[in-house]
Amino acid sequence: SVPKIGPISLGINIVKSEGAAALFSGVSATLLRQTLYSTTRMGLYEVLKTKWSDPESGKLSLSRKIGAGLVAGGIGAAVGNPADVAMVRMQADGRLPLAQRRNYAGVGDAIKSMVKGEGVTSLWRGSALTINRAMIVTAAQLASYDQFKEGILESGVIEDGLGTHVVASFAAGFVASVASNPVDVIKTRVMNMKVGAYEGALDCAVKTVRAEGAMALYKGFVPTVCRQGPFTVVLFVTLEQIKKLLRDF
User: Fold this and answer.
1) Contacts 24+ apart (CB under 8 A), 22-29
2) Which sign, positive or negative, has the C-alpha torsion 161, 163, 164, 168?
3) pTM, two decimal places
4) Measured between alpha carbons, how far is 89 from 87 in angstroms, rounded to an integer?
5) Taking Cα atoms as reference points, which of 114, 168, 111 lies closest to residue 145?
6) Where do the Solcar repeat units fall (predicted)?
């Protein structure tokens, strides 16, 4: 049996074997991905919310919020997939044997090398998984944030302000983590696989569950929550403050 290792122990091992800089592997690809993916999905979600809201009450049903999240997430993921593939490969490079490491200099070098060595279509390898994940995350994250926020305000427990935004956004981050972790596990394995390892996402999921059990789909759940929680809080608190500034401008 393979001994279990937690996120803190894993981080310490990475620093010992590869240095502290390894904790920031793929940061250039991460920045590019967020620039392309997040701006597209957030902007499109707001546009769809405005168009699909009830003209009289100005409210949007939960089903329409989820629908807006699915559409916005899918389009955003398609735009950001090349950077996503580069990010996964750059972050996984340190786990490969020295002879098999790609040693990309940055996201530009990664994308250039993939196009040159594997063709343009390699930039959208695993795109079906990426798009599915983004649809799930965006629908879970944005729709649940709006729903939690509305519920808090209607209850009258907290007024609309920083406290409401923090509570609603952290809850939304947890919902997004639960919904997306299985897709994350499969997506990472497919994107980083050697040719022929899996026939597709479903084959990867089946082989993973058979070999490691169903809970293997929730490997890395604690780091996912630790990442999604603060990220979602910062995302929505910043967004709400920008909205307020624009309204007051």
Assistant:
1) 22/94, 25/90, 25/91, 25/93, 25/94, 26/86, 26/87, 26/88, 26/89, 26/90, 26/91, 26/107, 28/106, 28/107, 28/108, 29/83, 29/84, 29/86, 29/87, 29/90, 29/106, 29/107, 29/110
2) positive
3) 0.72
4) 6
5) 168
6) 1-51, 60-151, 160-245
- The one-letter amino acid at 224: T
